[in-house]
Specification:
This protein has helices at about 10-15, 25-40, 50-65, 105-115, 155-165, 180-185, 225-235, 275-290, 305-320, 325-335, 345-355, 360-380, 420-425, 460-475, and strands at about 45, 75-80, 120-125, 135, 140, 170-175, 190-195, 215-220, 260-265, 295, 385-390, 410, 415, 435-440, 450-455. The protein has 14 helices and 15 strands. Helices cover about 35% and strands about 15% of the residues. By secondary structure, the protein is α/β, with parallel strands linked by helices. Helix 2 packs antiparallel against helix 3 (about 50-65), helix 5 (about 155-165) runs parallel beside helix 6 and helix 7 (about 225-235) runs antiparallel to helix 14. Among the domains are: about 1-240 and about 245-250, Amidase signature (AS) enzymes; about 305-375, no CATH class.
């Protein structure tokens, strides 16, 4: 029965509805696996096993009466630690919020439960969701199931590790700097970064904050592209008072397969060079897509200054994340700003400049974004999807170096700045575009790697569909060895 733990969520949900398995047995399977494997991974950091079993038994009683809450009835799920779950702590890995207990469920948790899912626990994150690895003083470090000496990504690193190791059926994470896609890439799982604003972020903001933050989105993670499609349909849509005024109507995929699909490919870039271990897999995937009948072009690019686009993303990103920092940190940025050299493009210089923007300057950068979004929209009149790397390397070793300016990644034998990962992460974030991360297989170092399908705003169904077609073409999630 162990292999059942690695089935995609949509398969598990179908078996539950047909009563081929019971919710209680499936819950017991996952709880047993958590007890056995989680100490080595540290993926799930909040757990209510007793309540989860109670809910599973009730789900079985409901099915026996012919009552089905929704498509996920009885499915064990977990969510990222930053999502509010009533009665559970939400800390974002921040010691200052160690005792923060949520009074209500986040919008995503509400909708998962309404669909019948059973939220059994929460998964680990980096401090303030701000790293490509997942470690914090409260819960410690999460390891990658493919190699526990390596990271599972961040900030939804606990989410991806739990999925890859077969500790949960479905996950929900968030993304402002690659935090859904990056962990999926490092663990061989799937993730979807929705078009900005289509999934409510209520209850997935720092304690006391109720307004949505710029750039940040929440979305599903799973072991198949079908799981993403299913989950997005359940969690997307207007929330609260907005639901009285508008309805979400995402267009169907723009094609029914790769044949004739117009595919642009952005496979490498000097701003974030891609290691051959990832690049070779990407090239193989693109070749398979072309052989399947897609119209492929690796030279097509949006008509704008790429350096300006990336700088715009970094300014807006750091302006948003600065709001999460304590007042004394912000005041330190203000003191440091006048000392920066004009040509200082280091990590902290970038952070400081973005964090201390005057509102007038933020409006200017936002206007630049609006123009860049128009260029992206024009680009997607000619192309259905853009394929790009998710990150430049496979999973890298854990690092305890606190100064990110001193961190680097070994790419093709040379050290490259750690923060360069933000280039690929930011491509769809700044212009609010949807992006679906899908595994490409195992690289020559034995670790998984993924690509991302980026689409026009609102074309979420198309990017997810492309991930489905790729799954059929070259395969999808691979069970990591050693967790049976």
């Amino acid at each position: 029965m162990v292999d059942l733990a690695f089935e995609p969520a949509h398969v598990l949900a179908r078996k539950l509805r047909r009563r081929e398995i019971t919710a209680e047995a499936l819950m017991r399977l996952y709880l047993d696996r958590i007890a056995r494997f989680n100490p080595k991974l540290n993926a799930i950091v909040v757990l209510d096993a007793d309540k989860a079993q109670e809910h599973a038994r009730e789900a079985d009683r409901e099915l026996a009466r012919g009552e089905v809450k929704g498509p996920l009835h009885g499915l064990p799920t977990t969510v990222k630690e930053s999502f509010d779950v009533a009665g559970w702590k939400t800390t974002w890995g921040n010691p200052a919020w160690r005792d923060n207990v949520a009074a209500t469920d986040s919008a995503v948790v509400e909708r998962l439960r309404r669909a019948g899912a059973i939220v059994l626990g929460k998964t680990n994150v980096p401090l303030l969701l701000g790293d490509f690895q997942s470690t914090n003083e409260i819960y410690g470090t999460t390891n990658n199931p493919w190699n526990v000496e390596r990271v599972p990504g961040g900030s939804s690193g606990g989410s991806s590790a739990a999925l890859a190791a077969g500790l949960t059926g479905l996950e929900a994470g968030s993304d402002i700097g690659g935090s859904l896609r990056n962990p999926a890439h490092y663990t061989g799982t799937y993730a979807h970064k929705p078009s900005y604003g289509i999934v409510p972020t209520r209850g997935q903001m720092p304690p006391g904050i109720v307004g949505p933050g710029d750039l940040s989105v929440v979305g599903p993670m799973g072991r198949s592209a079908e799981d993403l499609d299913l989950a997005l349909g359940l969690i997307a849509g207007a929330d609260g008072a907005e639901a009285t005024a508008w309805r979400l109507d995402l267009p169907a995929p723009s094609a029914d397969g790769f044949k004739g699909l117009r595919v642009a490919v952005w496979g490498d870039d000097p701003r974030s060079p891609v290691d051959a271990a990832v690049g070779d897999l990407l090239q193989s995937a693109v070749e398979a897509i072309a052989k399947a009948g897609a119209v492929v072009d690796d030279k097509a690019r949006p008509d704008f200054d790429i350096e300006l686009a990336h700088t715009t993303y970094l300014r807006l990103l750091r302006g948003t994340t600065a709001a999460r920092q304590p007042k004394d940190v912000f005041e330190g940025y203000l003191k440091k700003l006048p000392t920066l050299a004009d040509d200082d493009r280091g990590y902290y210089a970038t952070v400081i400049r973005g964090a201390t923007l005057y509102h007038r300057d933020w409006i200017g950068w936002n206007e630049t974004r609006a123009k860049l979004r128009r260029s992206w929209a024009k680009f997607f009149e000619s192309w259905d999807v853009l394929i790009a790397p998710v990150a430049p390397t496979t999973a890298f070793p854990h690092t305890a170096e606190p100064d990110r300016d001193k961190r680097s990644l070994p790419i093709n034998g040379r050290p490259v700045a750690y923060s360069s990962q933000l280039f690929w992460a930011g491509l769809p974030i700044m212009p609010y575009l949807p992006a679906t991360a899908a595994p490409m297989g195992l690289a020559k170092d034995g670790l998984p790697a993924g690509l991302q399908f980026i689409g026009a705003f609102g074309r979420d169904r198309t990017t997810i569909a492309a991930a489905k077609w790729l799954e059929k073409l070259i395969g999808g999630f691979i069970q990591p060895p050693g967790w049976a």
